[in-house]
Amino acid sequence: MKAEQLPIQMSVGRDRTFGNFHTGDNAAAVDRLKRLCDAAGAEQVFVWGQAFTGKSHLLQAVCRRTAQRGRRGVFVPLKTLPGEDAGVLAGLENVEVICVDDMDAAAGDAAREEALFDLINRARARNCRMAFAARGNPTRLPFVLKDLSSRLVWGGVYRLAPLSDADKPQALKLHARERGCTVPDDVIRYLLHHHPRNMGYLADAVQRLDHASLRDQRRITVPFARAVLAGGA
Fold first, then answer.
1. Alpha-carbon 213 to chain mean position
2. What is the total count of domains within the chain?
């Protein structure tokens, strides 16, 4: 199958880059993923951690960095793909970099596990680079196919630590700056004190404020943020 005929199209958010990922205590994992993008031979990295630690962000950042280097990458979000079609992974070894998110979504599905196992073998034979992500350590995910676990730990395995509350203001400023908008300190304090503190929600809130600010041609202030996030603007 030719690369342009692949059944999965890369769906990567424009704001998912290494540049706007606040590293916190995850420097080793981020550096390893960057090196994977630039490698010439077969490489593999597995990152895992609780929700909202940036797993999907980092895998999409790998795809963007890969594309910037003139190579083809594909982002595979298993959680949103049809579980009954294990054949959707066929042909992915024809791209240079394969990023598979939500590996825990495949656990217990024998057909999916077999398809992933075969993909890893084909990809290594073609000197592809692969990055995986899940909420759990690959050695502890409840796979039916035990050999899959051994394949997933071939390369480096890194646990992503959540950002501390002290790191979140800087992370939000970085996220806003990459989008080309400014979120004042008092608005960031408002978000952290009156809204869920997980980075998934907070990053989405910044995006909503940016869109509303451009639409209404208004500065982002605390009253404006309160109205937008309450659904009133």
1. 26
2. 2
